[in-house]
Amino acid sequence: MAEQSTLILIKPDAVERGLIGTVLNRLENKGLTIEKMEMRTMTSELADAHYAEHVEKPFYPDLKAFMTSRPLVALIATGDEAIPAVRTIAGATDGRKAEAGTIRGDYSLSQQRNLIHASDSPESAKREIDLWFN
Description:
The protein is α+β, with helices and mostly antiparallel strands. Helices cover 43% and strands 21% of the residues. The chain has a single domain (3-133), classed as Alpha-Beta Plaits (2-Layer Sandwich), CATH 3.30.70. The radius of gyration is 14 Å and the shape is globular.
């Protein structure tokens, strides 16, 4: 068993639409354990650190404005192969292309307002967890 921890952000659009419970239910039904969770608003500084690889890209100002606009839920989920498990549950980044049965496939019609962020590797998970919870 490869126990992993991953950072998940339930983004402002999901919070605004009342989908926190839906997202948590899918994670817990998969067998993941929620280790830590808090609702907060992403600061400008945290956005720049979290999305460091995107700061210079043309889409970043809109992404930053969206992610810092309203509260979101940050959480750490743990379980066997949690990183790929959560990414499968989340679905493809573009909700219009995500498979039915995934969070994005069932609830999103956008690439940017796509309800959930999930770490993409053990290295990203460690960096992101340290940013959000340390």
